[in-house]
Amino acid sequence: MENFKEKNSNLENIIIGRNPVLEALKSNEIIDTLYISSNGGVISHIIALAKEKDITVKNVSDKKLSSMCENKSHQGVIATIGSAEYVSVEDILNVSKEKGTKPFIVICDEVEDPHNLGAIIRTCETAGVDGIIIPKRRSATLNATVRKTSAGAVSYVPVARVGNLASTIDFLKDNNVWIYGTDASGSNYTDTDLTGGIALIIGSEGFGMGKLIKNKCDFLLSLPMCGRLNSLNASVAGGIFIYEALRQRLNK
Predict the structure, then answer these.
(1) What is the model's pTM?
(2) What is the spatial distance between Cα 97 and Cα 89, in angstroms, rounded to a whole number?
């Protein structure tokens, strides 16, 4: 039975089949997500190893796996290869400590389009953001599409992937970081002081920030909308907020 590693039609590097996935988990390969359509035997061992390494495991149908690998024989398991390793939130906070500056963090709340996430990472790199935080669920991951869209910025910007975004926000607050959400009901983004320790939250493409995350914010920021549409692409809006924060910090 044929097992191999290849790029799928969505440009994500994937590992197909039980033995290749198992060996990748045992090695230093950066595994982003494990997709399974069955359980028991070797698959159970693969799942256990993935959980030990804090790798996200998703249960999907055989049809989904076949689509991912262009109908090759997948044996019930496919792993996607990450383009960079994730870090901890503490690692991101240490970046500003080492630079002697106030924390400058971006949180992506359910940004699911890898092109948007890649563009946000690229903007963060050019603006000197300390790091990015994304949730484990309902979010794009550091796959090959993100690497390409970011123009390689994923190699330079630390990204933390967390299981509970709300508790992570509480942790940031405990470490003297103010939380700034982006929402149409907020104050004009140029009228708010962004020179302290901040975490900017960029909401999802279709729905913005979730209700719980919005309620966790210390401040809400908005962009003026003068046309017939009332929203911007997530990465475009994020870029405006990020560079306003940078402008204020450079002029302080």
Answers:
(1) 0.79
(2) 13
